[in-house]
Design brief:
- This protein is α+β, with helices and mostly antiparallel strands.
- Helix content is 38%, strand content 20%.
- The protein has 11 helices and 10 strands.
- The strands form 2 sheets. The chain has a 7-stranded mixed sheet with strand order 1-5-6-10-9-8-7, with helices on both faces.
- A hairpin with a 2-residue loop joins strand 7 and strand 8.
- The chain is rod-shaped.
- The two termini are 84 Å apart.
- The structure holds zinc ion.
- Zinc ion binds next to loops.
Length: 339
């Protein structure tokens, strides 16, 4: 039996264990309840009395050897296994994306900030508007082409059949609501969505954003209007920006003007963006028409005022060199992520 134990001892030492599976085989073969060593302990009773002390001693040594090898390898493999299950802090972090402010919202916030700093208050109005506020009160008579079905989304109310509704075609009805609810002096801006029944192209969309401005007080002049817009566009596009006003027509202002700014790409020399004119159109403005004041019970002999509307998509496209208005609303993160 002693020579047998010597062989087993050698076998234990040379048993190849490179992973948990082999270690299990090792355990089953030598130290499990049905293993080789357990059997040898059972056979110990058959060993002669003379041999027993030596054999017993050797058997214990071999058992210790097997258990020692098993325990140290098990510890080693447990460490590796548990390391696999825990987080490897050296790995690069998983990509994590959060939403961001839409470019138009960024423009809106910037515009509001600039106007607030010079005393304008932000007001709001409904997008589903009564025809009265969108047209009639703004001196836009029934036959006016702006009321054409082709330009305006009309909405039929089933509840309120007497009133006619439209998706507002501009932010100007907020002027009317503000003047009906408050007495001058008034100094407001009102940014928001407007809707036009337009064919969608790279430069037209059926929905876009405007920022309306209105200032009503005693002795408000065209000069005040030009001053405030020149100030705004310098803040928005940079100190070198020049502003000019070209005579235009709107039913609700008299006189009316188109607002142009000097092309910030060529600095006014002429380029593709400004169609070689050196100027870019950014909005409309004018002095509030006396008929508008009459419709909101403000005496045009006592008060004067100016109003302006700036297309937010337009000034944003110009600022960032965006060529297609549709990209604002396609929700393509590859576009939106750039801003
Ligand atoms: Zn230019």
């Amino acid at each position: 039996m002693l020579s047998n134990l010597a062989e087993i001892e050698q076998e234990i030492n040379s048993f190849p264990v490179t992973g948990p599976d082999e270690l299990e085989n090792f355990r089953l073969k030598f130290i499990s309840r049905n293993g080789l060593l357990t059997k040898l302990f059972e056979e110990l009773k058959n060993v002669s009395r003379e041999e027993k002390p030596a054999v017993g001693k050797k058997l214990n040594e071999v058992k210790k050897l097997a258990e020692g090898k098993y325990n140290s390898l098990k510890e080693q493999f447990d460490d590796t296994t548990s390391a696999k299950e825990t987080i490897d802090l050296t790995l690069p972090a998983a990509e994590f994306s959060i939403g961001r402010e839409h470019l138009i919202s960024q423009t809106l916030a910037e515009m509001v900030k600039i106007f607030r700093e010079i005393g304008f208050k932000v007001t709001d109005g409904p997008e589903l508007e009564e025809e009265f506020y969108n047209f009639d009160a703004l001196n836009t008579p029934a036959h006016h082409p702006a009321r054409d079905m082709q330009d305006t989304f009309y909405v039929q109310s089933k509840v309120d059949k007497d009133k006619k509704y439209v998706l507002r075609t501009h932010t100007s009805p907020v002027q009317i609501r503000t003047m009906l609810a408050n007495k001058p002096p008034l100094r407001i801006i009102s940014p928001g969505k407007v809707f036009r029944n337009e064919t969608v192209t790279f430069k037209n969309y059926f929905m876009f954003h405007q920022l309306e401005g209105l200032y009503v007080d005693k002795n408000v002049s065209m000069q005040d209007l030009k001053g405030v817009l020149a100030y705004f566009f310098k803040k928005f596009y940079g100190e070198k920006t020049k502003t000019r006003f070209i005579p235009s027509f709107f039913p609700f202002t008299e006189p009316s003007g188109q607002i142009d700014i000097s092309c910030f790409i060529c600095g006014g020399k002429g380029c593709k963006t400004c169609k070689e004119t050196g100027w870019l159109e950014v909005g409309g403005c004018g002095m509030v028409d006396p008929n508008v004041f009459k419709s909101v019970n403000i005496d045009p002999e006592e008060f004067t005022g100016y109003a302006f509307g700036i297309g937010m998509e337009r000034i944003t496209m110009m600022k960032y060199g965006i060529k297609d208005i549709r990209t604002f609303y396609q929700n393509d993160v590859r576009f939106l992520d750039q801003f």
